Amino acid sequence: MTSSGRAADMRVTVLAGGVGGARFVRGLREALSGDDEITLVVNTGDDLWLSGVRLQPDIDSILYALAGVNDTERGWGRAGETERVSAELREWGSGWPWFTLGDLDLGTHLARTGWLRDGLTYTQIAERLAARWPIGVRLLPMTDAEVDTHVVVEDGSRLHFQEWWTRHRAALRAVEFQNEGIQDAGPAPGVVEAIEGADVVLIAPSNPVVSIGPILAVPGIREALANARRVVGVSPIIGGRVVRGMADACLSAIGVETAADAVARHYGRRADGGVLDTWMLAEEDATLAAGLRDEGWDVRVEPLWMSDLERSAALARAALA
Fold first, then answer.
1. How far apart are the first and last CA of the chain?
2. How far apart are CA 264 and CA 280, in angstroms?
3. Which of 112, 116, 146, 244 has most Cβ atoms within 10 angstroms of its Cβ?
4. 42 φ, ψ to 5°?
5. DSSP 8-state class, residue 222
6. Which residues of the chain carry a pLDDT beneath 70?
7. Which residues contact 200 (CB under 8 A, 6 or more apart)?
8. pLDDT tens digit string along 64-85?
């Protein structure tokens, strides 16, 4: 038994992306023992080619956070970064001048691109990257296919998600999110087994549309969730507001209200063909619990703010309970 009285050797699989996912997984790792097994299935819809190198923002953000080398002030990239290469690329007119890459971060992208040219898959590359630091989890991309997210905006233009998100700060009204080729993609090796073999699958408080949405859109993943033992989701909405980023703009584009109960209904209950068994609401949204329970939902109300590692671990323990 662990110090908490829970049996050891628990297998937990997390669907995650972005900063919210990184914070949640750090708390989960803190909450579990060294005998437990954590597998992360990470969104790769944010990926892109830029200046000839392949970027995987969500994979890298989670990797850096778990390794303790992330820039906690900016919320992205490596700590102690310099940006000499990005400055030189701007002088050459290469890449996007509004999308700055740190030199240490570029080292990761160059290594990844070289391994791709050598014939490695994204799954194999994630394993190599994770081996550098003792991160304590198994890191899996959602798919080995390239299914970058593009955003169709109101005037009909189609932008890469990173341009819409980083350059325009989601100010251009989105009408559709597309992941070209995702219908022909498949889960990365090990993803289905990790979901179906887990004692519990956790859906992190990541952006429901552009972080969790692409994962669920990979053929075979919803089917795996249907066969999972238990699926628990954590709301990314607290008090009717997004915690970080512009997830409200993404939700509006697909007709979902920025509210914790609306996101729950967006995911749906497994009993009704959705993906969740349990939904975790913030204390600030406790008044929404009764309505969901009337619809048959298993709802838990907990403190959801992950302002430090201790609170993140407490949230993870509540999700596991």
1. 15
2. 9
3. 112
4. -110, 140
5. H
6. 1-8
7. 10, 12, 13, 229, 230, 231, 232, 319, 320
8. 999 999 988 887 789 999 999 9
Q: Residues 222, 186: contact at Cβ < 8 Å? A: no
Task: Tell me how far the alpha carbon of residue 208 is from its chain's centroid.
Answer: 9
What lies within 8 Å, CB to CB, of 224 at 6+ separation is: 187, 191, 192, 195, 196
Nearest CA to 25 out of 37, 35, 34, 16 is that of 16
Query: Residue 17, by phi and psi: left (phi above 0), alpha (psi -120 to 50) or beta?
Result: beta
Domain for residue 303, yes or no?
Answer: yes
Give 129-145 as a DSSP string: HHTTTT--SEEEESBSS
Record the pTM.
0.94
> Using an 8 Å Cβ cutoff, are 151 and 46 in contact?
no
The pLDDT of residue 139 is 97
Q: What is the pLDDT of residues 189-236, one digit of tens each?
A: 999 999 999 999 999 999 999 999 999 999 999 999 999 999 999 999
Q: What range defines the domain where residue 145 resides?
A: 11-45+140-320
Q: Which two tokens stand for residue 176?
A: 């559709």
Return the SS3 of 115.
helix
| pLDDT for residue 7 | 46
Is residue 74 domain-resident?
Answer: no
Structural domain includes residue 62: no
Number of domains in the chain: 1
Residue 104 near residue 80 (C-beta atoms within 8 A): yes
State the pLDDT at residue 19.
Answer: 86
Residue 202 domain-assigned? yes
The helix/strand/coil state of 209 is: coil
Q: Sheet with 174-179: list strands edge to edge.
A: 158-160, 149-153, 174-179
CATH of the domain at 151: 3.40.50.10680
